[in-house]
Protein 1
Amino acid sequence: MLKAEKIVSTTCPYCGVGCNLQLHIQDDFIYRVTSPFDSVVNHGNLCVKGRFGYDYIYNKQRVTTPLIRKTRQVAGSRTQAFDRSEWREANWDEALDYAADRLVEIYQRDGSKAMAVYCCAKATNEDNYLLQKMYRALFRSNNVDHCTRLCHAASVVALQMAVGSAAMSNTAAEVVESDVFMLTGSNVSENHPIIALQMKKAVQKHGAKLIVVDPRRIEMVNYAALYLPIKPGSDVPVFSAMAHVILKENLHNPQFIAERTENFEAFAASMEKFTPEYAEAISGVDRQLIIDAARMYATAGKSAIYWALGIPESTHGTANALSLINLALLTGQIGRRGTGLNPLRGQNNVQGASDSGAMPWHYPGYQTVDNEQNAQRWEKTWNIEPGGLNRQRGLTTTEILSAVHPGGVQALYIMGENPMMSEPNLNHTRKKMEELEFVVAQDLFINESGAFADVFLPAAAFAEKDGTFTNTDRRVQRVRQAFPPRGNARADWQIICDIAKRIEKRLGRPNTAFWDYSHPSEILAEMGGNVPDYAGVRYANIEKVGLQTPVPTEDHPGTPYLYTKDFPRGRGKFHPLEYVPNAEMPDDEYPFVLSTGRVLEHWHGGTMTRHSWMDDLFPEALMEINPADAANLAIRDGGPVRVTSRRGSIVLRAKVTPKANPGVVFIPFHFWEAAANILTTDAVDPQAKIPEYKAGVVRIAPAFDEEMTAAVPMQIRGRY
Ligand SMILES: Nc1nc2c(c(=O)[nH]1)N[C@H]1C(S)=C(S)[C@@H](COP(=O)(O)OP(=O)(O)OC[C@H]3O[C@@H](n4cnc5c(=O)[nH]c(N)nc54)[C@H](O)[C@@H]3O)O[C@H]1N2
Ligand SMILES: Nc1nc2c(c(=O)[nH]1)N[C@H]1C(S)=C(S)[C@@H](COP(=O)(O)OP(=O)(O)OC[C@H]3O[C@@H](n4cnc5c(=O)[nH]c(N)nc54)[C@H](O)[C@@H]3O)O[C@H]1N2
Ligand code: SF4
Ligand SMILES: [Mo]
């Protein structure tokens, strides 16, 4: 007998747009996904992943029983274990006891510096709040980070420096109210497809003018009034030259500058040198296009800037983002509807995981860990002796693995991340994973990183648990359980509570913090007690429509756009800028710039989409290369090519397309068979510690079909 049909409203587990989903369930099985026409975020629209990409939940390679590695791994020669025979099934008590024993053993021997955790932007606010609490309260370690470091870290640092808050200033759907909007470093139609629909509507129905600044001829170029085909890494010259033109032509907003900003003089002086001619020489963009873009942006009634990873994922990512912020402050195009500074956040819950404290320098609510008052506040909340919390900033994602050595990090807990696909320079990453003494993986699958684990804890998928995600425009939305977890899988928050209690007992620190919750709503309420932006968020208030933070009180309607009267830091601060070239520039040996990123059908390391029928839609890695470059190298469309950087080499097929501008090739990082991150450099931005994923250099040569499989250089040829 089939159980009766039911419809469960929830939030998409893929991207930061946060589309509302209706899961149609029969017999604990999703047979259809729709979205209501009145959904505020997506108006009934869904992209291919939201509509069809959920079947990873049922994939037979999903692991739904705790597993323990049969042989004890030794630091220095740890290996990946994809083969089922290398693991044995365990019950929850045994797996949790084992994980707690080993973690506590290492902590008691080597202290908090040996402990590190990756939180998860796919998991809920409640899951992330608890995992950072476990590491801070029990292991006294701030080595807590997540993929935000690899993502918008530089946007966050720059926005904190300039305005004092890091989130999108406006609501994505407000783009239809803009007269002009600039889109840069954002392939929005593949990566935030529903926001792209709203942008297309803004252009086609509302007559908004779009300026695209991007090294690839992305789809949105077809809708653009101006397209600036920038060379990778030349953002500071181009956006500063726009500022130069705005200043020279008196198109700035003196009243806004006087009333709401500081440091204008120093900034204006530093813009002198950024003439359009100078910017053209570095960026390859025609100077007249830069002048036109400056006039268009500055003179419109309402202009907004939208950006994604082309800006932050650079060794000068902070400066890139500051060059955009300077433009908004200079023209006063912020603090009103249809204006603003809008970094499009990537993961479904990267905004929320950051808000919840899954970061090494901040408690929940962006409260710095090295501030005495903040530490005391959380000591009180978590029932910790005065002075007990660690006041030192922890290590970032990019620093944690580099710190794996005797006297450094020894034990790593990974909840829902995949550094062995997502971190730069994977050959280096692999060595560091091998050197760890103990690894816990908590995921739906044994991915390339989980294969290094000693113990695997099977987590429930989004449709199997309750909680909240916070989307890119700060909207806290409900995630609802549609059916019980498959097999023995359990919700992340429950797993964390159970392991935390065991650790607490072994440490002899009873009643540290609190680990007994009957429902995740209690966890969010605990966090809201100390995080003013979430103070008013209650599950009861977000039943139908989510609320945009800040939500300071329970009767507050939420905050669609920020900075109406002032900035969180008071005045907006201008920053003088210098041009700094990329860490690597093309030369005779490595003549091409490699840009990496995404395609519509896939997600990051592919753990979810490659276990879904999205993989049939886009089954293989392809390198985009310009027709002229391909002709020079005798590369044919669909032919295999070998791509080599200073760090490694991969073989994949070429896609010859004018979407790639000359001199720049593009490889998506979703495919283990040709993992783009074998090639990328681990050079980072000094302030934000974000890697330069968008501009390594490579050489390219035609290859043979046989090399395609033989070339896989790591032991990741299979999946568990
Ligand atoms: N289908 C799908 N959607 C996703 C994801 C996914 O894996 N798959 N991931 C999500 C996540 S976590 C994120 S963070 C977002 C990322 O969203 P995007 O940032 O849109 O994703 P990328 O594919 O990395 O595209 C980067 C864009 O920056 C441009 N670019 C590269 N170098 C430069 C440069 O030097 N200057 C400028 N101005 N532009 C440059 C590229 O040409 C490209 O258009 O996507 C989210 N959405
Ligand atoms: N070359 C290159 N590399 C990049 C980038 C790039 O542009 N170029 N972009 C970077 C960016 S922006 C990002 S955000 C990172 C992403 O990097 P990661 O976060 O490491 O990658 P994901 O593949 O999204 O990993 C998510 C994991 O969470 C699991 N998961 C899903 N739902 C749940 C859940 O509810 N609970 C638990 N416990 N697990 C769950 C999935 O199965 C998957 O294994 O990659 C970065 N790496
Ligand atoms: S646009 Fe993003 S949130 Fe919406 S359905 Fe697609 S992946 Fe999901
Ligand atoms: Mo991201």
Protein 2
Amino acid sequence: MRKASLMAETFLMGATLIDLTQPVDWKVPVYPGDPPFSSQQFCSVDKDGYSVHALSCSSHVGTHIDAPSHFIADGATIDQLLPSAFILPALVLDVSHKKDRECISWDSVEPVADRICPGTAVLFHTGWSRHWDDATRYFDHPWLAADVAERLVALGARLIGTDTMSPDQSPMVGPSAGDGDCAPDFGVHRTILGAGGLIVENLTNLDSLLGTGPDTEVIVSVLPLRIAGCDGSPVRAVAWLQSRGGGSLFVT
Ligand SMILES: *[C@@H]1O[C@H](CO)[C@@H](O)[C@H](O)[C@H]1NC(C)=O
Ligand SMILES: [Zn+2]
């Protein structure tokens, strides 16, 4: 107990945490076919002496992580992965010049590809988090070409993250959408998860990690709940900066 609080204390003194997590309530638009989110008072301080809520949601609600078993039948489930899989050095790419439903090709990654080492998390800042409350525009996000995922895996990237609902194209929704418009092929999901990697979706605030100097390293933490047999979990995604090659912020 004492040791744990000491570690947290030292950590907090050493770095500022940046919250990369979207707030979730019943109004936010979920993927077509996904179960809706609800959080209802089940016990209350007034009536029962304590407050408890009943939660009901998809395992992919809000800012969340996809385990390999989300697309791969015998892939690892979220509870099988060690905590170290979720705390990684990150490279944050600014692709906020991309327009609605524009493809992000390898050209956008190539200039910084030499900074992707085995175990790096690659995060795509599209700026789409600003459309979080917009039930149609949020679906019209830029998406990754399948070969970007293949090349990232080849370089050893273990996790990709995006401030959109998916690294793949999402279906068109809303009144003007035709049946099957932009039906996703999930090529990026299959490649990353098929390689045993992880995907984080619905991130926000990635712009606050841009423009760090070469001496600064971004560390991202996306620890999930340890739900047995589950294909994903909501996360509280955070990041902090530390000096490259500098000492660990944790007490050992
Ligand atoms: C976030 O992304 C996922 C895609 O996995 C989607 O199912 C979910 O509904 C999204 N949005 C919200 C508000 O949870
Ligand atoms: Zn997901």
